[in-house]
Write a structure and sequence with these properties.
Radius of gyration: 14 Å
Distance between the termini: 37 Å
Oligomer: single chain
Order of helices and strands: EEEEEEEEEEE
Number of strands: 11
Amino acid sequence: VQLVESGGGLVQPGGSLRLSCAASGLTFSSYSYSMKWSRQAPGKDGELVAGISHSGITNYADSVKGRFTISKDVVKTTVDLQMNSLKPEDTAVYYCSARNRWNGNEYWGRGTQVTVSS
């Protein structure tokens, strides 16, 4: 399983970015994988940002509710994170991960940097 994130960059406060995670070596149509976006800012603990279960149920950190939306494309095997109304405190490296619900195996991408600054 390989996960590759893209879409990060520099954006002004209030702006938007769309992150994408391309997954290979797994299929969403098997309903075996849940997917997550997490982030880690310098000097801070990692934080779960958003998740989407094998059946499509989503969950969000309180800090991003109403601003971020996670979605998946079963055909393309991608998981996107639409981020709106970005704040400086959203600055972090964002990671995509996949977890197999049958055997518990978890896979992580290398991350993409998001910087929110004027």
